[in-house]
């Protein structure tokens, strides 16, 4: 069905743009004296993100940096996430869900595997905050809730 | 190239009648995104023919009961079906006796059985265990744990640039200290067939036990455990037309007799007193608890199906299809294909990367074309690191795959170059 194919390509186009924007923004970007660094990986594919966060006294996220490797969907959703949380209180991270990120990407994801891709950056940030004593929702539980 | 295609489609007595085979697999008529699914993920799990599904249905519909010790017809028939499946598997791999055929859940459990039962009784501090850098995690992690527990050393046979096991240093790696050598018969990432004879010969010179991971070979080529000369051979039912939840460990009887049991409890005992227990005969000594009865019967039906086709023909079909695929894929710019290039030295597994497109993204695009492939590290992280990749996309063939499906894959890869801006 040619019509569908065109739509699919356009969908991918936006994800690729976001992924490219992420690559550009993160290339050579080093968070100075980060308060939190945390690495998480997707056990299904071995993709890895290491996040660095700089927070000020009010708990606002001043700077976000990612290193690692990921597919276009995981990098695109990381880009959306950065826009959502940079300059905001860590408490606002709790408001962000994987579904919201996927909505922003403008694609439909039905596969459990790809849902994990879309959620990797968010999971890394949330777990990183949690391990450093900030109160945020357990991202692992969110993983389960949404794939059921 | 047309020659290769025609040869595969030619339904003479020398090759598989693929059209007839496909009629036994109704799932292959399922449509996704307006097209029949090209199922190219057989390395992960195959499909099952009607004959296998019906054998299991018949058990559930007509004689469902637990095996052994039931003195009524259903139980006796279930026992006959389940034990009969051991006999079929024994013939399929040319075991000396069905008593050497242990049903497990899968290859992973079979390999763990060897590591836990044989390994813990026989490996000591200072001993060496040998595996290889191309192994699936299931033939690597159990040995890591065993080595750590016993303070033994784990050594690895390396890989050549073309993805074959590099046995040039074999005499050093496998030495007088080596107690066990475990390696794959066929790489699940590269398709490379291992130099079994050379490794077994060296292992036997030093008196080491040989464990072969046959998860990718048993479904796709003739296997004769006597000719291979190994001591253990492990494989899974679900990769060879059988159901999930049933796998096989073949072991030499003398070794199995000496080994302590693995899972203990129901069905694996002879006598139990409050002070001590003795073990049932082989293979039941290693099949503790109610087994997967329907799945065992289903595996028996799968073995019947493959035996009827002839494993030589299965192998020949895959050599031809792989040769055709490699030819066609060689014409795609930016495509890196991993592993040996000669179809005679490899199975029907092709791992590749298209430019710097992430395999997950590529697989998602192929899914939209109704082409089912696998993307990721394929449970072989050390090997993927050696390939200097983060992951690969993998197409893997079986008896029902056709040159048309290869054509669809190739066309989709050309299209992917446009979608991902490689052209």
Would you give an account of this structure?
The complex is a heterodimer of chains A (148) and B (423). Chain A has 148 residues and is of the alpha+beta class. Chain A has 6 helices and 3 strands, in the order αβββααααα. Chain A has one domain (2-147): Alpha-Beta Complex (Sufe protein. Chain: A), CATH 3.90.1010. In chain A, strands 1-2-3 form a 3-stranded antiparallel β-sheet, covered by helices on one side. In chain A, β2 (48-55) and β3 (61-69) form a beta hairpin. In chain A, α1 packs across α2 and α2 packs across α4 (98-105). Chain B has 423 residues and is an alpha/beta fold. Chain B folds into 2 domains: 2-32 and 311-419, Aspartate Aminotransferase, domain 1 (Alpha-Beta Complex); 52-308, Aspartate Aminotransferase, domain 2 (3-Layer(aba) Sandwich), CATH 3.40.640.10. Chain B has a 7-stranded mixed β-sheet with strand order 4-10-9-8-7-5-6, sandwiched between helices. A 4-stranded antiparallel β-sheet of chain B has the order 13-14-17-16, with helices on one face. Chain B has a two-stranded antiparallel ribbon with strand order 1-2. In chain B, β8, α9 and β9 (232-236) form a beta-alpha-beta unit. Chain B is globular and about 75 Å long.
